[in-house]
Amino acid sequence: MIKHRVITEEDRELYLYGLRLLCEKLLGFISILVICILANGFMEGAVFYLAFSFLRRYSGGYHAGSFISCYLSSCFVVFVCVLMSRTELTQMLSVVFMILGTPVVLAIAPVEHPAKPLEECEIIHYRKLTRLIVISEIIIFVTFYFLELYSLCFSVGYGFLMLSVLLVIQKLKNNAKK
């Protein structure tokens, strides 16, 4: 692209970084998709991924130190979600996870990461967005529950629990640095 003057030499590193991020995102997404399909839990995995991702975008929390750590832990978390969504305890666990995770998310989100400090106006904006998403996902959870789609309830509840854990970890790390 430099040779054809599509980008400049100064922008080379930026484009390489963006390309690497795109490849990492694609690898993660495809791997999670494969895990869900092979474990026969596409819907459970998709609901978890969507519920978790929408909340995670605005709530912040802990981030793994490297792509490989993030990749492996993400694949593991999705695999556990798909497997656990089929247990006899799914209905009860989904409610317990929502009861445990929701107040944590509402109380402390957004949680800043040192790599991405937030301005006060961003904190207020992200807190509002987080609360809107929480309300929306609670409505989805209740709908799944009344439709007796307990494995999908579990996926939403598990997403809340995992997010609350990441928020608490980062909050503790932030407080330890003060």
Task: Provide structural commentary.
The protein is mostly helical. It has six helices and no strands. Helix 1 (12-38) runs antiparallel to helix 2 (42-59), helix 2 crosses helix 3 (67-84) and helix 3 runs antiparallel to helix 6.
Order of helices and strands: HHHHHH
Principal-axes geometry comes out as: globular
Indicate the structural class. Answer: mainly alpha
**Share of helix among residues?**
over 70%
Largest sheet: none
What is the tally of helical segments? 6
Low-confidence stretches: none
Q: What is the terminal separation in angstroms? A: 45 Å
Strand elements, count: 0
Q: What percent strand?
A: under 5%
Q: Could you report the average pLDDT, rounded to the nearest whole number?
A: 92
Radius of gyration, rounded? 18 Å
Features:
178 residues, 6 helices, 0% strand, 77% helix, mainly alpha
Topology record:
Elements: H1 12-38, H2 42-59, H3 67-84, H4 90-108, H5 120-146, H6 150-177
Helix pairs in contact: 1-2, 1-3, 2-3, 2-5, 2-6, 3-6, 4-5, 4-6, 5-6
